[in-house]
Design brief:
- The chain is built from eleven helices and eight strands.
- The chain has about 220 residues and is α/β, with parallel strands linked by helices.
- The protein has one domain: Aldolase class I (TIM Barrel, Alpha-Beta Barrel).
- An eight-stranded parallel β-barrel has the order 1-2-3-4-5-6-7-8, surrounded by eight helices.
- The longest helix has 18 residues.
- The protein binds erythose-4-phosphate.
- The site of erythose-4-phosphate has 11 residues, from helix 7.
Length: about 220
């Protein structure tokens, strides 16, 4: 199980990487838009500086055609670094781009995945990661867990090198279910991670421990 942050906020990435065992960072054009008029490449470089070179950084192409996606990939790899996983939506042009990128040993993450068929085609095209959109599938009435489990089954059955990078979460329960269905990694907004540890019953339990300790020892801590 690996947890990634699905954000381009430098402040959040720095803050949450100090707290949680974060395994990498993802974004897409909609997430990047929230940062306003940034210098795209230097901003992505700043994310890399925070997380370090050993953790996967996934950056999405903006072009819609395969040729443009390849040019986007070249620019990302040249101006950020050669270790970036290039996120490519699994469309007709996207699947072509993934095949061409793999032929050039470019690391890829197949994204905007809503179905088994997209996932199966992406693994056969040689992608490193597949990003099924959990919450969006649920909204469509699809069984997101079953879709993820099917992809994991095919990866295992045929020994594809692809891994599942589950995405599009709106709560911690969805993340848990994606992992239980076999997702190797999951990316989420930091607020979802924080919500897992800030539930009122957790805070109440800790407040009670604190009050009971102080009722006996006052403000002295164990180490004093
Ligand atoms: C990440 O790679 C995806 O682009 C992202 O999780 C989509 O999330 P959303 O459904 O909240 O937009």
């Amino acid at each position: 199980m690996k947890y990634l942050l699905d954000t381009a906020s430098l402040k959040d990435i720095a803050h949450y990487c100090e707290i949680f065992p974060i395994a990498g960072v993802t974004s897409n054009p909609s997430i990047v838009k929230r940062e306003g008029q940034i210098d795209f490449f230097s901003h992505m470089g700043a994310i890399r500086s925070i997380i370090g070179r050993e953790k996967p950084l996934h950056i999405q192409v903006a072009s819609l055609d395969a040729e443009g996606m390849l040019k986007d990939a070249d620019a990302i790899l040249e101006k950020v670094d050669a270790d970036v996983y290039v996120k490519v939506p699994v469309t007709m042009e996207g699947i072509k781009a993934i095949r061409l990128m793999k032929a050039r040993n470019i690391r890829t993450t197949a994204t905007a995945v809503y179905s088994r068929q997209q996932g199966f085609l992406a693994m056969e095209a040689g992608t490193d990661y597949i990003a099924p959109y959990y919450n969006r599938m649920e909204h469509m009435g699809l069984d997101a867990e079953d879709v993820i489990a099917s992809m994991v089954e095919m990866i295992d059955r045929y020994s594809y090198p692809s891994q599942i990078l589950a995405a599009s979460f709106k709560n911690a329960g969805q993340v848990d279910r994606a992992f239980l269905a076999g997702a190797h990694t999951a990316t989420m907004d930091p607020a979802i991670l924080e919500s897992a540890l800030t539930q009122p019953h957790i805070i109440n339990a800790v407040d009670t421990f604190d009050a009971d300790w102080k009722s006996v020892f006052g403000d002295k801590t164990i180490s004093e």
